[in-house]
Amino acid sequence: MRNVTDAFIAACNAPQTEEGFFVLVTIDHPNLPGPIYLNNSGANIISRGMTFLACPIQPTISDDSDDRPPQAKLILDNVDRDLVGVIREAAADGIALTVTLEIIKATDPDTVEQALTDFEMKDVMYNSLTIEGTLSLEGLFAEPACAYTFSPTYFPGLF
After folding, report:
1. pLDDT (tens digit per residue) in 10-43
2. Those residues with Cβ within 8 angstroms of residue 128's Cβ, 6 or more apart along the chain or in another chain
3. Which residue from 76, 95, 96, 128 puts its CA 20 to 30 A from 107's CA?
4. Which helix (H) or strand (E) segment is 118 a member of?
5. 44: Cβ–Cβ under 8 A, 6 or more apart, which residues?
6. In whole angstroms, how large is the CA radius of gyration of the chain?
7. Structure pTM?
């Protein structure tokens, strides 16, 4: 269950609303002096004391598949050459970029309605117009499903 505000739920379920929602993107890497903050509103947004720069962003959620973890695609307009430099450094190090997606309301940018964290951005391709990468939660599927092993001590009914 995700905790969101009642106003967010009401705006999402309303046939019409004057409330706008924006996506905040935080890109981080150990070689960066600090995270890169972007948003899709068309204007810079200050949220929780950080300035999220306006950048056309297109997140795309992919279909579920049994043979791989859930993935999403993130397409950014290539508006700054510094982004490509960061991507090249990350590829040379072999360390993936870390991406966080947050949804906020336009009227209350300091309240994060939904946060999607710990994505790794891999398979990054870029050209003069766009930067496109695959977001995945690789580490999530390496975690054990439960704390116990199925042994006669813990589960005698199975044996």
Report:
1. 887 888 887 888 889 998 888 778 888 999 888 9
2. 78
3. 76
4. strand 108-126
5. 51, 52, 53, 54
6. 19
7. 0.75
A 10 A CB-CB count for 107 gives: 11
* Contact (Cβ atoms closer than 8 angstroms) between residue 21 and residue 105: yes
Extents of the domains making up the chain: 6-144
pLDDT tens column, 70-83: 677 888 887 777 77
Query: What does the chain come to in residues?
Result: 159
**Nearest alpha-carbon partner for 54 in 63, 46, 45:** 45
Domain at 6-144: CATH code:
2.30.110
> H or E element: which one contains 93?
helix 81-93
Inter-residue contact 144 to 150 (CB < 8 Å): no
Q: How far apart are CA 101 and CA 9, in angstroms?
A: 19
